[in-house]
């Protein structure tokens, strides 16, 4: 009797006991790092912009308030984006490419010209820098193309050339603005993605060589770009002319030393350094927070990039190629744009006018970068959901096996009872 009771108890437990598993959540590390970079950006933009805001608008917090509004808009956009399934991006990425081309054409036709560049679309009180969404849309298309034409990309030259033709069209539209910095970022990301997708090495190096030649030709062909490069080589040769901005930036880095002059104590932000709160915000951060502050920002960005590449690896291992390639593109994009921005302000690279992701002042860049982080969060979330579902299926199969195992002794007992002779 006891044996039968224990078997019944085991059968009940196998059928009704459920494992205590919690639903997968979004990656808290990515969220914390993104918010940390945003907070650092708000503090440094506020500090760097106060003198110029006071002179231009009689309000030292003018740019700080606008940056705060951009942050709120960016967080709202990210919260909406993270609810979109990756199926949406997989299906719509060809239309996103058309949207990117449309934005770049529209900015040439009806865009606002500022300092000799036509890069902004004005829609009522909203100003949109068309190149920022164009980058995200192009990378989504490129990830989709890698999935649809993977065999062509890795096996023949035709499949390798097709995405480059699309990039060439976008590059022409961007250079007409002109915006060489965005072209360089898109080229580097395209090359990195093709390399990670398994393109043949000779094709990759041929593209690298052609890309370098094209950039050199564009620099030599334009007088102002050539002046930027020559001033980058020796900014002190003309410290009050072509090398003025870079020499002031280098002074900011030099004054920062190890721990900086203290928050708010920058001298270069007193309108000695142009664009202190946008392209050269890292120089002010270096002056006020020193080498330590710069390393904190770099480590945060490095963690975010490594996490993006890890998510890309996990997605490819789970046979989610589109998500994997898109995560790779995000990682390469963030790393290269960060390197160009900081390299330009530190005198390592020529100035390119690119923002520091999630840190620099600029609504379009801040919103698009936040949306990009939300896409990365969504990829990681769907991978976690898929893992939990697979685990649940395995547990269900295990439970059914336990039920069958518990049923066998009972069935055997029933057979034994039926075979016992009748006392009568």
TrEMBL record:
Q: Which GO terms describe its cellular component?
A: cell division site; plasma membrane
* Keyword Protein biosynthesis in record: no
Indicate how the chain sits in the lipid bilayer: Multi-pass membrane protein
> Matching PROSITE patterns, A to Z?
FTSW_RODA_SPOVE
Keywords associated with the record: Cell cycle, Cell division, Cell inner membrane, Cell membrane, Cell shape, Cell wall biogenesis/degradation, Glycosyltransferase, Membrane, Peptidoglycan synthesis, Transferase, Transmembrane, Transmembrane helix
User: What is the superkingdom listed in this entry's lineage?
Assistant: Bacteria
Gene Ontology MF term list: lipid-linked peptidoglycan transporter activity; peptidoglycan glycosyltransferase activity
What reaction gets catalysed by this protein?
[GlcNAc-(1->4)-Mur2Ac(oyl-L-Ala-gamma-D-Glu-L-Lys-D-Ala-D-Ala)](n)-di-trans,octa-cis-undecaprenyl diphosphate + beta-D-GlcNAc-(1->4)-Mur2Ac(oyl-L-Ala-gamma-D-Glu-L-Lys-D-Ala-D-Ala)-di-trans,octa-cis-undecaprenyl diphosphate = [GlcNAc-(1->4)-Mur2Ac(oyl-L-Ala-gamma-D-Glu-L-Lys-D-Ala-D-Ala)](n+1)-di-trans,octa-cis-undecaprenyl diphosphate + di-trans,octa-cis-undecaprenyl diphosphate + H(+)
Q: Give the location in the cell.
A: Cell inner membrane; Cell membrane
Pfam families for this protein: FTSW_RODA_SPOVE
Pathway(s) it belongs to: Cell wall biogenesis; peptidoglycan biosynthesis
What class does this enzyme belong to in the EC scheme?
Answer: transferase
Give the main localization category. membrane
Q: What is its EC number?
A: 2.4.99.28
Q: Where are the transmembrane segments?
A: 28-48, 69-89, 95-114, 121-144, 164-189, 201-220, 280-305, 325-346, 358-377
What GO biological process term is on the record, naming one? peptidoglycan biosynthetic process
Family per UniProt?
Belongs to the SEDS family. FtsW subfamily.
Q: What does this protein do?
A: Peptidoglycan polymerase that is essential for cell division.
Which named protein is this?
Answer: Probable peptidoglycan glycosyltransferase FtsW
């Amino acid at each position: 009797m006891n044996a039968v009771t224990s078997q019944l108890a085991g059968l009940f437990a196998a059928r009704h006991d459920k494992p205590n598993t919690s639903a997968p959540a979004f990656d808290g590390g990515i969220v914390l790092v993104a918010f940390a970079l945003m907070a650092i950006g708000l503090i440094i933009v506020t500090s760097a912009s106060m003198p110029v805001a006071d002179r231009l608008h009689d309000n030292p917090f003018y740019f700080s308030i606008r940056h705060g509004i951009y942050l709120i808009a960016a967080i709202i956009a990210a919260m909406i984006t993270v609810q979109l399934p990756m199926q949406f991006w997989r299906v719509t990425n060809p239309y996103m490419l058309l949207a990117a081309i449309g934005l770049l054409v529209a900015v040439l036709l009806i865009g606002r010209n500022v300092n000799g560049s036509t890069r902004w679309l004005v829609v009522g009180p909203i100003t949109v820098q068309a190149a920022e969404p164009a980058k995200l849309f192009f990378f989504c298309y490129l990830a989709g193309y890698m999935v649809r034409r993977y065999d062509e990309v890795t096996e023949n030259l035709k499949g390798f050339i097709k995405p480059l033709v699309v990039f060439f069209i976008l590059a022409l539209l961007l250079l007409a603005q002109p915006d060489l910095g965005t072209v360089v970022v898109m080229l580097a990301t395209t090359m990195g993605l093709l390399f990670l997708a398994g393109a043949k090495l000779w094709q990759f190096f041929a593209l690298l060589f052609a890309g370098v030649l094209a950039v050199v030709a564009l620099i030599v062909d334009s007088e102002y770009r050539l002046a930027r490069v020559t001033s980058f080589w020796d900014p002190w040769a003309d410290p009050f002319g072509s090398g003025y901005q870079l020499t002031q930036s280098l002074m900011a880095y030099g004054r920062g030393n190890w721990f900086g002059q203290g928050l708010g104590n920058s001298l270069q932000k007193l309108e000695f350094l142009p664009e202190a709160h946008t392209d050269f915000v890292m120089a002010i951060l270096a002056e006020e927070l020193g080498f330590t502050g710069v390393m904190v920002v770099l480590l945060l960005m490095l963690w975010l990039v490594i996490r993006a590449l890890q998510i890309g690896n996990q997605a490819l291992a789970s046979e989610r190629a589109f998500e994997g390639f898109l995560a790779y593109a995000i990682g390469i994009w963030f790393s290269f744009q960060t390197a160009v921005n900081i390299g330009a302000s530190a005198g390592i690279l020529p100035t390119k006018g690119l923002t520091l992701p999630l840190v620099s002042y600029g609504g379009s860049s801040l919103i698009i970068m936040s949306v990009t982080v939300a896409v990365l969060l969504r990829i990681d979330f769907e991978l976690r959901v898929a893992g939990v579902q697979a685990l649940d299926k395995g547990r269900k199969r295990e439970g059914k096996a336990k039920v069958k195992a518990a049923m066998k002794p009972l069935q055997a007992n029933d057979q034994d009872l039926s075979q016992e002779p009748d006392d009568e």
